[in-house]
Amino acid sequence: MKIHEAEARQLLADAGLAVPDASTATTPAGARAAAERLFSGGAAQVVIKAQVLVGGRGKAGGVKLAATPQEAEQVAAGILALEIKGLPVRRVLIAPAATILREIYLAALIDRSSRGVLLMASAAGGMEIEEVAAKSPEAIVRVVAHPHAGLLPYQARQLGFGIGLSGELLKQFCVIAAGLVRIARSSDADLVEVNPLAVVPAPELPGGERLVCLDAKVTLDDSALDRHPELAAWRDADSEDPIDREAREQGIAYIRLDGSIGCMVNGAGLAMTTLDLVTQAGGSPANFLDIGGGARSEKVAAAMRIILADPGVKAILVNIFGGITRGDEVAKGLIAARDQQDRVVPMVVRIVGTNAKEAAELLTAGGFETAASLDEAAEKAVALAGAGGAAR
């Protein structure tokens, strides 16, 4: 789950990291009031940023400066009227504009290859890290945090030295880098990114410079949100695909792929095996979908709606192993779903285990194509999809 910059900055501030003061507003008048507060605190300019969960806000006109509260109100009105990459702007963030001397990239993310929290830093801040990796991979310094102790002091220094920091800035950098790891671990985040981590003037400090987190991006592990209801409340429905939202609300694990064969399976391992066998048979899966154990007919019908919402689906493979899940309940759900669906897509069903006999009787009476084995089911589904999805 992605969260907005405003909430990401709050996570960083709550962890004691250097984040400039900021407010959010949903109306132009609210933006003016926020700007007045910042100007009275000494800000020379404010930056107004659209809160949408897509990149390229600046290029789309969603990030602008204002020199007075009146101008902030006008700018906010224009930004709040925007749609950026199809998403409406419902809220803006107002923060003091910074005098940036240079920019750094810093992120903590889950790295499957090292099975740990990976810290990445680059002196080429302000750029997309993918662009830096493509053009100058040597400019990215990487360190894997200790699995229990977090980022150790020598690792933080190693990271800072690698991007040319020293003295007071290095000390500040080490604090921020360790903080990102703490945030990632405490919030079950997949990614905690600061870009830019900006060097700004600070005459009161030795060296005359300090680091501040001017922008933040955080993505959270959906599977861990039951441990963080306060973070789950930050979900933005506007940015969520309606099909993904229905799957989440129904308790269905669903990931859209780019193939033509929709798959409905119970159990993650069986689902992965089903996808492999579809591929082996020459087909291309359109999704990963796990209805879970004990699914009732209503959940099966919902899963079918989710699969059929993908216009690329030309055939459907249902593969159910009845343990907790009753095969006859699945069959009833399939029959109900077929009666409700808007378009006809050929389907092959394999159900074994609990109440498989009753399921077979229901499916036969309903005219469904069935298969005795998963190999057979995959081959039939691929043939149906290749035939252009002709209804049986």
Describe the protein's architecture and organization:
The mean pLDDT is 91. This protein has three domains: 76 residues, ATP-grasp fold, A domain (Dna Ligase, domain 1); 131 residues, D-amino Acid Aminotransferase, Chain A, domain 1 (2-Layer Sandwich), CATH 3.30.470.20; 146 residues, Rossmann fold (3-Layer(aba) Sandwich), CATH 3.40.50. Helices cover 38% and strands 25% of the residues. It has 392 residues and is of the alpha+beta class. It is built from 13 helices and 19 strands. Strand 17, helix 11 and strand 18 form a beta-alpha-beta unit. The chain is elongated and about 80 Å long. The strands form five sheets. Strands 1, 8, 9, 10, 11, 12 and 13 form a seven-stranded antiparallel sheet that branches. Strands 2-7-3-4 form a four-stranded antiparallel sheet, with helices on one face.
Short summary:
By secondary structure, this protein is of the alpha+beta class. The chain has 13 helices and 19 strands.
Q: Topology, pairings included?
A:
Elements: E1 2-3, H1 5-14, E2 23-25, H2 28-40, E3 46-50, E4 63-66, H3 69-80, E5 83-84, E6 87-88, E7 92-96, E8 102-111, E9 116-122, H4 129-135, E10 140-144, H5 153-162, H6 167-187, E11 189-201, E12 209-213, E13 216-220, H7 229-232, H8 242-250, E14 253-256, E15 261-265, H9 268-280, E16 287-290, H10 297-308, E17 315-322, H11 327-340, E18 347-353, H12 356-365, E19 369-370, H13 374-386
Parallel strand pairs: 15-17, 17-18, 18-19
Antiparallel strand pairs: 1-13, 2-7, 3-4, 3-7, 5-6, 8-9, 8-11, 9-10, 11-12, 11-13, 14-16
